Amino acid sequence: MTKALILTVRNWWEAQPERPQISQVHLTVGQFTCVEPVSLQFAFEVQTRNTFLEAAKLVIQETPLIAFCHHCQQEYRPELGIQYACPDCQSPMEDIRSGRELKINRIEYCSDSTESYASNL
Amino acid sequence: MHQTFDAALEINLLHANQEGAEHNRAHFDAWGITCLNIMSSPGAGKTVLLEKTLAALNQTLKIAVIEGDMTTELDADRLRQHNVPVIAINTGRSCHLDSKMVAGGLHQLEHQYSPSDFDLVLVENVGNLVCPAEFEVGEHAKVALLSITEGEDKPLKYPVMFQEADCLLITKMDLAPHLEIDVNRIIANVRQMNPGVTIIPVSAKTGEGLTAWFDWLQSQIPSAEKIASKLPDLTSA
């Protein structure tokens, strides 16, 4: 998963007219995915040493698993590892509204703009 | 002085893999091949199921296998005994196949054979109940295996795998009399997150359920003739 993330960021970076210094990569990671944010942070740090992403930090926003029960016409929060059906009517979890996200939201990068500042300041 | 800029990407983290999977699927469609991605934990019985499948079907369907393993070609060699092309992919440290690896397998298929002759490509994924479900490789359907020795709670612990599956085979049913496992509980747990999945209890040893598995497999191939009636009776003593 970390390799996939680095590859996707690299594809974007190589397509930029001036390849910037990336400072932060903002991700949304859903609870109903196979990604554990802490592990991803660790693996990212290890795999980006001595690369264009060495200075970059991962900023991860986790989204909860939220399902919608069409029978009850309301949202509910399945209990991971315990119960996924609707707690009120036991209908199966068929409509996941949140929790499957694996997204790169945005990238923060720096640009050298020394010419904007006077050298005698 | 550094200035900070923001670039909104809104890209799926697995974007590159997803593109690769769509590319592979386009190849399969152009060649008239149905591709199934077969996944389970290590030791659930994927390879022995494939052996039974090849033995029963390789006279009526033209089948190739893409065999994923972290190391060795042990499983690939077993399957080659059934006189079908088996393309082995060693994933190294990766615990799952991805679309780029399978694309490499397709190139081998293209160079060594005439792909449009094939009806079916079976991808045996690395034994792992977690990652393979997230990484599409170009398949038309996902088949998950869960052996009854693994316990009733596995669908709850590994929900993404069981939610993504189009067909679930509950394997090693011949061991049921020796275990205190309630198969109906396994099925109920799976149906919590995947009410529509086809669930077939099977035993490669006794042949239980294999005809139903072959029927399901055949139903995934658009142009296959009805082969169920031509298959041997596998449940005879």
Task: Explain the overall architecture.
The complex is a heterodimer of chains A (about 120) and B (about 240). With about 120 residues, chain A is of the alpha+beta class. In chain A, about 20% of the residues lie in helices and about 30% in strands. Chain A has two helices and six strands, in the order αβαβββββ. In chain A, the strands form two sheets. Chain A has a three-stranded mixed β-sheet with strand order 2-1-6, covered by helices on one side. In chain A, strands 4-3-5 form a three-stranded antiparallel β-sheet, with no helix packed on it. Chain A is elongated, with a radius of gyration of 20 Å. Residues about 115-120 of chain A have low confidence and may be disordered. Chain B is α/β, with parallel strands linked by helices and about 240 residues long. Chain B is built from eight helices and eight strands, in the order E-H-E-H-E-H-E-H-E-E-H-H-E-H-E-H. Chain B has helices at about 15-30, 45-55, 75-80, 100-110, 155, 160-165, 185-195, 210-220, and strands at about 1-10, 35-40, 65-70, 85-90, 120-125, 140-145, 165-170, 200. In chain B, helix 1 packs parallel to helix 4 (about 100-110). The longest helix of chain B is centred in the N-terminal third of the chain and has 17 residues, at about 15-30. Mean pLDDT of chain B is about 90; it is low at about 225-230. The interface of A and B includes residues 11, 92, 102 and 117 of A.
